[in-house]
Amino acid sequence: MSDTAIEATGLGRRYGRRGAWALRDCAFRLPAGRVCAVVGPNGAGKSTLFALAAGLMAPTEGELRVLGTSPADARPRVGYVAQAKPLYPQLTVAETLRMGADLNPGRWDAAGAERIVAGGDLDPGTRIRSLSGGQRTRVALALALGKRPELLLLDEPMADLDPLARHDLMGVLMGTAAEHGTTIAMSSHVVAEVEESCDHLLLIGSGRVRLAGDIDDLLAAHLRVAGSAETDGLTGHTVVESRTTGRQLSALIRPAGPVSGDWRTEAPTLEDLVLAHLRSPGAPALTLTEEYAA
Amino acid sequence: MSTLSVTAAPAHPRQARWTFLLHRWALAVWVTLVVAISGLLLWAAGPLADESDRAWHRLDACRRLSRCVVDTGSYSTTYTFLTYAMILLPFVVAAWAGATLTARELESGTALMAWTQSVSPVRWLAVRLTLPAVVLTVGASLLVALHRFAWEAPEERTGNRPTWWVPFTFHANGPTIVTACLTALAVGTLTGLLVRRTLPALGVSVAASVLLLGGAHWLMPHLRTSVTEVGPFQDGYPDLYTGVELSHGLVTRTGAHIPTPECQATSMDVCRRIYEQRGGTGFYTTFHPASHFWPLQLTTSALLLVVTALLTAASFVVLRRRTG
Predict the structure, then answer these.
(1) Chain A: nearest CA to B120, how far in angstroms?
(2) Mean pLDDT, rounded, for B47-62
(3) Domain spans of chain A, in order of start
(4) B contacts of A55 (beta carbons < 8 Å)
(5) Which CATH class is domain A4-212?
(6) Distance (Å, whole) CA A139 – CA A119
(7) Which of A133, A181, B73, B228 could form a disulfide with A160 if both were Cys (CB 3.0 to 4.6 A apart)?
């Protein structure tokens, strides 16, 4: 098994010959076995990245390797749930799962899929068209997990779920990841939604990778500082974002070494990190995956 | 990596079953259409054709006596209706294929869901094309056989049944209508892949197949060498209305074929003088006689099959380029 789940180099995708770039110059590496949060505002290019990784769309430029091979070749080993949770409306829940079994011979986990559906108190005879958004999500997840993928790509999986179902399904996902070593990439524009369950972050803004790496490492690489606006000493460090309120200056920096001067420092939260990078499109991107490459 | 690919290989995904299940309504409609048209064709070939023959015999008998009115029954109306229905089938197929076979699945995203099950996009399209192609071929071939049966049922005489070369009868009597259904399937599939929205794809598919099939019908007489008959003025146009006509007109002294000049005169002699002034020596007709029925049918079908193959190949290229 490859130790890399997804690796992108110079990846770009544009819609139409003269359309805008949905994704450009993306380079990152997602190690296998991680639970990765793909975070970014609406229209950042998250869904495009997932469709590319699932082999549903060819990149305009650059290269993408999934599970050590091309996305098209990796397709049987990848599970994918699109944002709209597309399912055949005319089939019943039971039929949908039976279809999953028929289309994935040799790797279908019927018991696992049924367990996910059963958790939602769903009548197997109900047609998909009469399900609520959250119930659909449950069936879509069952279909994606049932094929026992090595890599699970979930595009905004929790958006339609109530807090209880979200907690329950997150538990199922984490259980699967822990049991089978499945790599999970899930997108969200709500940081809090993914913070507790993910150990890896891919922050995308305006079609570019802004932050990529282990969440703990990323947090450790940044510092929140506050002090008087007259204080010197931030030169030499990378200032991601700084704000001045009256004579008070607060900033998020990537320290190049110990911060000298009269600054109050504290560790940033993940939310701080994400917001600061999204608010300052000019700040340099940071990719912290090199240490895993060995 | 290798261990997992080995365990994942064994049985083939049972995609055919689900393609049938997902399109069970379309299949039911097609079967109903085929059964209904078949039944009506058999009815026309049996009781209706007999009724029509009897009426024409009565007419023959009473012509010798006096003026009379004879009811020829509903063979002709039923036959015409069924022929029209069969000619419309390819366009129904195009509408269905354009709207639901590919476009709707791409619009709603269910195609993407299917591709991330263990069914590659190319396989998905291959099954999606093969199954309807088989169903259409079987159904349309049955209809053609029964249509020929219904067409041949009444005695061959003017007024009783259309001649073999009348366009709709011509196509409903041979394999061109079967291949037209396959072309329509390919047109709809490619349109759906390109347009990716249900309603526009439906419109474009129907329009494109009208153009394509209309074009094939227009090309048909030119796909095979035609026959030219020449005769003197007093015999009129030779073999006019006996086959698929390409042109008729005057033959000049130099042997050239020119359109017949307009002649409003009621006397043939006056017209004849006008024709001779233009250098005319007689009339000609360029046409395909009845012996060309099968050659015309087969060349047109072959042409449509080539078009179908090209459209199908294009569909696969589009899908492969899109999904990598």
Answers:
(1) 8
(2) 87
(3) 4-212, 217-292
(4) 115-116, 323-324
(5) alpha beta
(6) 10
(7) A133
